[in-house]
Amino acid sequence: MTILVTGATGSLGRHVVKRLRQAGHTVRALTRTPAEATGVPSGVEVVGGDLTKPQTLAAALDGVSAVHLLGTAGHDHAPLRTGTQIMAMAAGAGVRRLTILSPGEEGELEQAVRGSGLEWTFIWPIDLMSNALGWAEIIRDTAEVREPYANRRTASVDEADVADVVAAVLSKGGHAGRRLVVTGPEALTPADKVSAIAGATGRELRFTELTHDQARHQWRAEGRPEEGIEFMLHMWATVPETVARTTSAVEEVLSRPPRSFAQWAAAHADAFRP
């Protein structure tokens, strides 16, 4: 079985490639810049292509049975606008099965997937635990995380669990016509996560909640643009309750519970040590 993974060098895609290759599948990794692809497992074919330019995808789709498809494209993560062309090309190439990284909002891509006649599954992780690596430098340097909205809770999921779900659906089938919202086993606040990192590293770490004005001052000092600052404040102020709801998706697909944030922190502890 030959499987094409788009976004193959990203934080999630590289895990999907690794899992599929470990399972013995022929894997084709799509990236816009093949010459810059690093860390690709031995035996994986790296091919060039751009999801926003379907004409570049013909060779990548040739002989492929299943595809993991990103629902966004570009550095701004804008919704993919070429879904209709990509679905037509995939069907014409003999692709049978799709996983699509998409929140399930009914844009052009989602409508094209539903009408494609292919076996499809939308997959959406609420939040990846790897986003906590954004704290790595500040924790190494100051042993403190300073952010507003300390009470926001998210059911973050280990990116390796999401990759396992994607790989299982692509290679074994099942869960067709569904939207799988993939979460970890619990919803945690930022302070909870910092505490777990402290336990994993054996360091004394602090979480300090900032006011709006304190956050603005800190982020301006870090050189963040004003529009970015206001976007983050608005986003964190309006976090929906749904992001704190855990699901059974990992257990349904993999017949095991999802990994906890404490387990993730233990596996990545070195990133947070000086």
From TrEMBL:
SUPFAM superfamilies according to UniProt: NAD(P)-binding Rossmann-fold domains (SSF51735)
One Pfam assignment: NAD_binding_10
Residues covered by the NAD(P)-binding domain: 7-102
PANTHER family (alphabetical): PRESTALK A DIFFERENTIATION PROTEIN A, PTHR43162
Protein name: NAD(P)H-binding protein
